[in-house]
Design a protein that fits this description.
CATH architecture: 3-Layer(aba) Sandwich
Oligomer: single chain
Number of strands: 10
Largest sheet: 8 strands, mixed
Number of domains: 1
Strand content: 25-35%
Radius of gyration: 16 Å
Helix content: 10-25%
CATH superfamily: Dihydrofolate Reductase, subunit A
């Protein structure tokens, strides 16, 4: 559980107006490097097993095969994306998964239970960044491990069901305190919520 002596774990998600977290193929996302700008200094990442293979490929390709990234995005990688890729390549990643067997990134390690994330919080260091996806963030919130939820709210409506590959329903939790709201370019808003881990989370 989160304590006053542990280092913070911050989850950052890009979301739509109707409460969906946008997946890696979401067209409305300007850059997946943007979320890192919302955070204090971090020195560890946490990802879910469903998100990690695409994440690993994309950020590795930004450095090793940028032409493949350009073909996928329809543009060259932004400088901030190159910076993110360099930082991610040297920063430890915990990948929470019961199915993945290995990760090719030297900085990544597969873990099987949220208890290993809780143990990481108790180690000295900077903040931990929970990259996502929504299922991982919900699991970490339910375990009382997330201290802040930082959202990039996009002025779009997904209107999609749970089967859509590019969106997932934003985790529901109680005990949220809005501590910052900042309008930015293209109608987006940065929102920061502090999570009270002592408030029981809804099971609905």
């Amino acid at each position: 559980m989160s304590t006053t002596t542990s280092r913070p774990l911050i989850a950052a998600l890009q979301v739509t107006l109707d409460g969906y977290a946008i997946g890696a193929e979401g067209d409305s996302v300007d850059s997946w490097a943007d979320a890192l700008e919302l955070l204090p200094p971090v020195d560890a990442f946490v990802l879910g097993g469903g998100m990690f293979p695409g994440y690993e490929w994309f950020w590795g390709a930004v450095l090793d095969d940028p032409s493949a990234v350009s073909a996928m995005l329809g543009r060259d990688p932004f400088p901030r994306e190159v910076d993110y890729a360099r930082f991610a390549a040297k920063t430890p990643h915990l990948v929470l998964s019961t199915t993945l067997q290995e990760a090719t990134w030297p900085s990544a390690r597969i873990v099987r239970d949220v208890s290993e994330v809780a143990a990481l919080k108790q180690q000295p260091g900077d903040a931990i960044y929970a990259v996502g996806g929504p299922g991982l963030v919900e699991s970490l919130i339910d375990a009382g491990l997330v201290d802040e939820l930082r959202l990039i709210l996009h002025p779009v409506s997904a209107g999609a069901g749970e089967g859509d590959a590019t969106v997932g329903k934003l985790p529901h939790c109680q005990g949220l305190e809005l501590v910052a709201a900042e309008p930015v370019a293209a109608g987006r808003v940065y929102l920061t919520y502090r999570i009270d881990a002592s408030t029981p989370q809804s099971t609905e």
